[in-house]
Design goal:
With 267 residues, this protein is an alpha+beta fold. The chain has 4 helices and 17 strands. The chain has 2 domains: 2-118 and 252-260, Roll (Diaminopimelate Epimerase, Chain A, domain 1); 124-248, Diaminopimelate Epimerase, Chain A, domain 1. Helix content is 16%, strand content 43%. The protein has a 17-stranded mixed beta sheet that branches.
């Protein structure tokens, strides 16, 4: 089987995208997805996405983590898939699509910039030195004086594999506040390493920043510096309900290619 694929990246978060409108990709082949995402033996990516048809919507997003398992929502992936749908001629400048966490809107702006509307957030756990919330994927957010020299791999694994999270897992975001932006570094479950950016993690980090600044009502936005680039998040808060959450940044086509899977892992 020869597979045609497209590579996209959003702030360094890279993905393999497949036009699967004929629903031919073997979605239960965890080993195959894992191989394709492998950076040494396969193509290499943080995740793989299928663009599939969905009645009443422009398309459906199916997302797999690099470990081969179907994942929860991926914010940068959703932005890249919207750019991909535009490249395929499925949409013009706006899209309404479904993902594992519900319905999303996307809008293509200028110069490869795409903004994505995320699902609302209503439950945020506040601990002694952390926040825990779900922005389409679960995130443990910890603010620190400095993250530049932080060992994100080992510090993230301590939390991701602790007694509470070891079974289901969580993403772990380390955040540093500046006067006009925040910086975020993320350990991603499913990748089981630090990634150059994490869309749902960046959204979670900005929401928690707003909480720390006492935003109980009204709008808040922040520029975010990730390892792979800059993004912007805005939202509106009404007491404990966070809505109108938008993630904005570059979603860039990298290259198109094909891979012969005839002699690759068999299920």
């Amino acid at each position: 089987m020869e597979l045609t694929f497209y590579k996209y990246e959003g702030a360094g978060n890279d993905f393999i995208l497949l036009d699967d409108r004929e629903t031919k990709f073997p979605e239960k082949r965890t080993d195959l997805v894992k191989f394709i995402c492998d950076r040494h033996f396969g193509i290499g990516a943080d995740g793989l996405m299928l663009l599939r048809p969905k009645n009443g919507y422009d398309y459906r997003m199916v997302y797999y983590n690099a470990d081969g398992n179907e994942g929860t929502m991926c914010g940068n992936g959703g932005r890249c898939l919207a750019a991909f749908a535009h490249k395929l001629g499925i949409i013009d400048k706006k899209a309404v699509f479904t993902a594992i966490d519900g319905i999303h809107e996307a809008e293509l702006l200028s110069n490869d910039c795409v903004r994505l509307k995320m699902t609302d957030v209503s439950e945020i756990e506040t601990g002694k030195d952390y926040y825990y919330l779900n922005t389409g994927s679960p995130h443990y957010v910890k603010f620190m004086p400095s993250i530049e020299d932080l060992d994100v791999y080992n510090e993230g694994r301590k939390i991701r594999y602790n007694e509470r999270f070891t079974r289901q897992g969580t993403n772990v975001d380390f955040v540093q506040e500046y006067s006009d932006h925040i910086a975020v570094r993320t350990y991603e479950r499913g990748v089981e390493n630090e990634t150059l950016a994490c869309g749902t993690g960046i959204v979670a980090s900005v929401i928690c920043t707003g909480l720390r600044k006492g935003i109980n009502h009204g709008s808040f936005s922040s520029i975010v510096h990730a390892m792979g680039g800059h993004l912007k998040v805005s939202f509106t808060r009404n007491d404990n309900h966070i809505k109108d959450i938008w993630l904005e940044g570059q979603a860039t086509f990298v290259f198109k290619g094909s891979i012969d899977l005839a002699s690759k892992p068999a299920g």
